[in-house]
Amino acid sequence: MARRANSGLKAGQIIIGLIVLAGLIGGGWFFLNHGSDPHATTPTLDVTEYLERSASLEGNTYKFNGVVQGQLKRDKDMGRLLHVSTKNDDGSFGDPVGVQLPAALDTQNIQKGQEFVFVIEVTSKGMLLVTDLRKI
Amino acid sequence: MTSSLFPPFRIALLCLAVMQTSFAQTDAPEPAAAPAPGASQSTSATAPATPGGPQPGFLGREVPLIDPTTETVTWDGKTWSITNNRLFRARFEKYLGAKEADPDEDADYRAALDDVLAALSPKREGGPNLPRAIAALTKASQYSIDARISDSLVNTVYGVWLARNSARAMAEANKELDRERKQLAHNMEIANDGNSLGERRSQSKTAGSGEASQGRDNVREARSEGTDMTMGRVGLYIKRTAEIEAMSAVNKTKAGISELKSKLEFQGLILQLLMQRRFEHVVIGTRLYRKLFSDGDGDLEIKEGSQVDQVFARGIGLNPTLSTVDAIASEAIREVAEGIEAFQFYADRGDLEAASKRLSEAFMVGEYMPGVRTLPRTEKMRVLDFVRDSNQLISALEVHNFGLVEELVDKLQKTANDFDSSKARAAVESARTIAGMHLQKARNAAIAQQLDVVGEELEKATTIWPNNPELKRVSDLIFERGDAHTRVLDDLNSLIAQKNYRQIFLDQAKYLAASIGKKEYEDKLKEIIEDMTRVQMGLQQAKGLSAKGDKHGAWEIVEELREKFPTDAEISVMSAQLTGEVAQFVSWLKNAKRLEEAQKMGPALAYYLKAKEVYPVSSFVERGVDRIVDDLFPDATDEEDDTFTSSSETASSDETESEEK
Fold this sequence. Notes:
The complex is a heterodimer.
Chain A: H1 11-34, H2 47-52, E1 61-75, E2 79-87, E3 93-101, E4 115-122, E5 128-135
Parallel strand pairs in A: 3-5
Antiparallel strand pairs in A: 1-2, 1-4, 2-3, 4-5
Chain B: H1 2-5, H2 8-21, H3 43-46, E1 65-67, E2 72-75, E3 78-81, H4 86-97, H5 103-120, H6 130-140, H7 149-207, H8 212-275, H9 279-292, H10 307-316, H11 322-349, H12 352-365, H13 370-373, H14 377-398, H15 402-415, H16 422-447, H17 451-464, H18 469-498, H19 501-506, H20 508-514, H21 519-548, H22 551-564, H23 569-581, H24 583-597, H25 601-614, H26 619-632, H27 654-660
Antiparallel strand pairs in B: 1-2, 2-3
Helix pairs in contact in B: 2-10, 4-14, 5-6, 5-9, 6-7, 7-8, 7-9, 8-9, 9-11, 11-12, 12-14, 14-15, 15-16, 16-17, 16-18, 21-22, 22-23, 24-25, 24-26, 25-26
């Protein structure tokens, strides 16, 4: 008897194919979204640890998302000191921190309520000195 | 009054004996009466009447003079009270307590004296009998009360007799001398006659002879020899006559001097007896004098210009005579008798002051008079207590013991109907008033912490009234207050060291009172009280905020107070209570402060901002953030930043933004 020829893909192959396709799609999406971020590998600031052990963080660079709550000081030579509320991953507000924006980076309009990605360096005094700033 | 009946000059003499025996023994004069407290010393009490020291006078002293209007005696340049003299008072008290003289013995003695006077009386039948008087005097001298004064009179009379005998002998001698002088005169006359007769015989013999020339020579020779012999004999007569006349004159002078000496001795004795207040003997002496001397009523031979002479001259304007002395003695005898009578009258009435005064006057004048000596002790005892209390009153006034003065015045008023308490009471009231003024000044000075003034015023008050009970009370009060004051200041120092300002605040009245006059304490207290007032206001404000639900605001107020007054219990309690209610807020602020002090400005700022999110108007947060900003932006200038605005609305104020959040 003649066997009927295997004319279609088997089900297993189809599933694997779908998985590969999904991987490709996901990878493309990740690439599209993160592939251009220079601080993609910069660790996120652990605010709790910062508050408790800032000394251990000194000299390190971190990034975090925060919403500007206010401006504590501004000087044309020294820049700004901002009151920023950190944002948690779930979008809620975390602890507030003070962020020092040097005059060299003080080139854009900053208003209360604006959310930024702050790349900062922890100084010897524990200050969060902005090294990069990107509005979200 | 007795003294008013005596002319001053007489009293002066009567007082001599008292003065010589009493005052002369005391160097320190005794004041007549206590001077009014606070007033100047009375010049009549002890001030010299004349400038300079004691002046020489009769018996080396001034003659004492009594002023009856003030009952004072001026003597030796000083003025004394008659009865306030301490020795006189002592003698008078002794007299009052002494048993009276034996009446029988005294009567016998007086009888003997009366016999003397009777024997000398001109009215006596047969005239005065001097030997009998001398015999009676000798008998009187045997009594102890006489003190041998009668014997002195007898001896003086005997001295006069001796003088008289001597004068009689002188007169006999002069008679013999006169007889001899007459014989000599006769001899001289004979001698002169004999010389003329011989000359005539020689001339007749030579004329009958023839040898005329030789005869003339012999005559001349014989004349010459006879004249020489006669002249020599007559010269001897003349010399002898002159000697006799000189001797006679000497004898006459001796007799006169002896007479005068006797008279002076007798007068001196009479005056001495007068001064000794032996008035009966004075009378006897004057009678004897008149009997012995022909000038019986003659002047007393007192040195002209002496004090005694002046006293007599001032008193009566005449020379003193025996009659004057006799009258004084007789009057004194009468006065003493009247004084005793007056004493008994007043004592019967209960007028003990007048009674004691009359008796003291009688005693002073006639201490040896029978009325004074024989006054029964039971009679004298009636005024003894009064006199003792009066003397004690005088002493109490002298030493300004006015408390005792008041007691004695009350007692004397009860015992004597006529006691005049006005002067004593006035002295007490005056002392009380003036001392009270000084005590009040001392108390005020003590409150003002003027210790020098306190001492001065207390000393003045003590001088016026040493035993003033008010003085003791006030000084105790001042010194107790001084102790209390010291204790309070010690407490204040301790509380300041402990920073226990609340206790100081609570007892501020006490500490303020203790700090008066001490600027360092006053300033510190003022600062503490102002601070604690602010604390109290702050605590009240915190309570109000807490009640309204503003726990954070309440905590901040209390915390600020606690930082300033960490030891205040009330602040601590309230702080602890509020800290529990805003523990997280407090924890964040403390962390922020700790990190700020550790120069970890970043996390410190983060904690302040966390706290600000809870209590946006926190002053602690504001000050902390400002400090951190200043640290991070030391050279920044305050500049307006109009570019920073809210994304939804323009907002330049961080606080406003936080509130909105």
